[in-house]
Design brief:
The complex is a heterodimer of chains A (428) and B (149).
Chain A lengths: L15 H6 L5 E7 L9 E5 L5 H5 L4 E3 L7 E3 L4 E16 L21 E3 L1 E12 L4 H8 L5 H4 L6 H7 L7 H7 L4 H10 L2 E4 L2 E4 L2 H17 L7 E2 H10 L4 H11 E4 L10 E4 L1 H12 L5 E2 H11 L15 E6 L2 E6 L9 H11 L5 H8 L9 H10 L5 H12 L1 H9 L5 E5 L3
Parallel strand pairs in A: 1-6
Antiparallel strand pairs in A: 3-4, 4-5, 5-7, 5-16, 8-9, 10-12, 11-12, 13-15, 14-15
Chain B lengths: L1 E6 L8 E7 L3 E3 L11 E7 L5 E6 L2 E24 L9 H5 L2 E18 L4 E2 L17 E3 L6
Parallel strand pairs in B: 1-7, 2-7
Antiparallel strand pairs in B: 3-9, 4-5, 5-6, 6-7, 6-8
Classes of the chains: A alpha+beta (428), B mainly beta (149).
GO biological process, one term (chain A): maintenance of mitotic sister chromatid cohesion
InterPro entries (chain A): Dcc1
Keywords (chain A): DNA replication
């Protein structure tokens, strides 16, 4: 379909949109219905911020979502909800005079040489509201078919057959983009936060048990081969683990999740060197200890310290946002409660937190809400808000959350207070 | 589903459309209901060098102003293309069998101004005093009084 919306040319004071826009003082122009006036439901009006305009004109935006979801528009870094703003006014849409797309069957343009012709009566327009990406779904998609140890030990010859069988619940980047309502950057950041890894073209979460096995293997071998945990040679580790039956991709993934790459030294001849992150490794083992349920503090500390590598030291502060401490009489208990398991939207997050515990002290609550960001509100404002809103009832916090998320909508309503305006979600 | 938002006009050369907006609605006389195409609605007149306009519809005159939109509107055209699905070697067969409908949005224009008429219509006693060639169809539309909330 090659249609070329031709350039607007206002020849000799002609009609069309350009005639109206350039109408000279003390002159007039008839306005009539276009030969192909009609509902034209395929024509949509989208209100766009000037700063967003170049992104759209350079084809850098997409609309994302599934049929049953409310549509969002994504630039490379931001997600916007698309709302329909209804308007009781009559909005006459007038195309440019030279617009080849809208001629009647005979190719006639009627009296357009002197009139402005109304093609459609618009019932409102769509507007964009910046929102937090809707990433909640991503984790459940990736958990449909986590990467387990069996896949790693598959013979390369049988791999293809194995992949065919195991293809259910596997997602490529394109599949995720089509299913998750987030911009590319936001989606990438969340994949990283979920410790997902791209294996054979599919994004996967590696099964917890398998992660535990491979990490333990790295640590065992570090004792065996006397590796320094703060400067691990990538090649050496991947080779050693490969001979133990672990794929290079998975071993590298362990380094990515539990370590950080050091700037390569010139002496190392371009070899990659990794340093294991003490905190991340320790948190991993703490979670392992608490897997069975809550424990008394002393016993937990004892088991935890035993589990972690000899050259690392555990500190309870590391477990902020990962475990909850409860005092029952004289005893102190701990249990696993990870911020990563909580919903990503503020309202749902607070609801989940207060379901877990009715009263929170600010210092306990903070690790569980500090990652929340509401678009359009500065980080400082959000921190202030978090400070004043703690330890009250769920409903109060929820209402604060909601009210600071929507002032934009209210101001819209004021603008239109003389005519009837309705805002609704749009679906694709 | 991922819908590409296309734009073939590039930077700065998007065709500009216009909006004339009235607070109320135009009612077409019943005898013209079925052949509304090409029918004249009224006469738009720029009365002064300022952005003041009148819109004369039948025996009513509305006055309004042209204003720049704070945020421009883009006109998007929704296009649906049915793709003859060619099964990808790697693609599973079940997916490839059903014809795929691809939706595309294309930017076909931009609106930066609107002429808004939000006053109550002023009745004209005699025929409209507008210096303009007489139209064959004559006044065929009326303006209903704007809704008062």
């Amino acid at each position: 379909m090659e249609e070329d919306p031709s350039k607007s040319e206002s020849g000799g004071g002609g009609g069309g949109a350009e005639g109206i826009i350039n109408l000279k003082p003390k002159s007039s122009m008839p306005i009539s219905y276009h030969p192909s006036f009609g509902p034209h439901e395929d024509l949509l009006l989208l209100e766009v911020d000037e700063k967003l305009l170049p992104h759209i004109l350079h084809q850098r935006v997409t609309v994302r979502g599934e049929c049953d979801e409310e549509a969002v528009l994504c630039t490379s870094s931001t997600t916007y909800a698309i709302k329909f703003v209804g308007n009781s006014n009559s909005i006459f849409l007038i195309p440019p005079f030279e617009n080849s797309e809208f001629t009647d069957e005979n190719g006639e343009k009627g009296d357009s040489y002197k009139a402005a012709q109304v093609l459609k009566l618009a019932s409102g327009n769509m507007e964009l509201v910046e929102i937090a990406p809707r990433l909640g779904k991503l984790k459940s998609l990736l958990m449909e078919n986590p990467y387990r140890s069996e896949e790693d030990s598959v013979d390369p010859m049988e791999e293809e057959e194995y992949l065919e069988r195991g293809k259910m619940g596997l997602y490529r980047w394109e599949d995720l983009v089509a299913k998750v309502q987030a911009s590319d950057e936001e989606l990438r950041a969340e994949l990283k936060a979920l410790s997902a890894v791209e294996i054979n073209g599919y994004w996967r979460i590696v099964d917890d048990k398998y992660i535990d096995v491979v990490l333990s293997m790295v640590l065992h071998n570090s004792v065996l081969f006397d590796w320094n945990l703060t400067s691990l040679n990538e090649d050496e580790i991947l080779s050693v683990l490969e001979s133990d039956g672990f794929s290079r991709r998975i071993s590298l993934h362990i380094l990515e999740v539990y370590g950080s790459k050091l700037d390569t030294d010139m002496d190392m001849e371009g070899k990659c060197v990794w340093r294991l992150d003490e905190k991340r490794v320790c948190v991993h083992f703490a979670k392992g200890v608490l897997k069975e349920g809550k424990m008394k503090m002393d016993r937990f500390m004892e088991e935890w310290v035993q589990k972690i590598p000899a050259r690392m030291s555990a500190d309870f502060e590391m477990l902020e946002g990962e475990v909850l401490v409860e005092k029952l009489g004289v005893e102190t208990w701990v249990r696993a409660f990870s911020v990563s398991s909580l919903p990503l939207t503020p309202a749902d997050r607070f609801a989940a937190l207060f379901r877990e515990k009715q009263k929170w002290e600010m210092k306990d609550l903070h690790p569980y809400i500090r990652d929340l960001r509401v678009p359009g509100v500065s980080a400082e404002a959000q921190d202030n808000l978090q400070c004043i809103s703690f330890a009250v009832s769920v409903y109060h916090i929820l209402s604060v959350c909601i009210s600071y998320a929507v002032p934009h909508k209210y101001s819209r309503l004021k603008v239109y207070r003389k005519s009837v305006v309705s805002i609704q979600q749009t679906s694709i | 589903m991922k819908i590409e938002v296309k734009c073939s006009c590039g930077d700065g050369s998007c065709p500009e459309w216009a909006i004339v907006e009235i607070q109320g609605m135009i009612e077409v006389q019943p005898c013209f209901k079925d052949r509304i195409q090409n029918l004249e609605i009224g006469i738009l007149c720029r009365t002064s060098s300022e952005e003041n306009y009148t819109f004369t519809v039948g025996y009513h005159e509305l006055s309004g102003t042209k204003m720049k939109l704070k945020k421009p509107y883009l006109i998007l055209k929704k296009k649906r293309t049915i793709l003859d699905s060619i099964p990808d070697e790697e693609e599973d067969v079940s997916k490839a069998n059903s014809p795929k409908i691809e939706t595309e949005l294309e930017v076909i224009g931009i609106i930066r101004h609107r002429i808004l008429f939000k006053t109550r219509p002023k009745p004209l006693i005699s025929k409209p005093q507008v210096v303009v060639k007489e139209k064959k169809s004559g006044p065929s539309t009326t303006v209903s009084v704007p809704m008062v909330q």
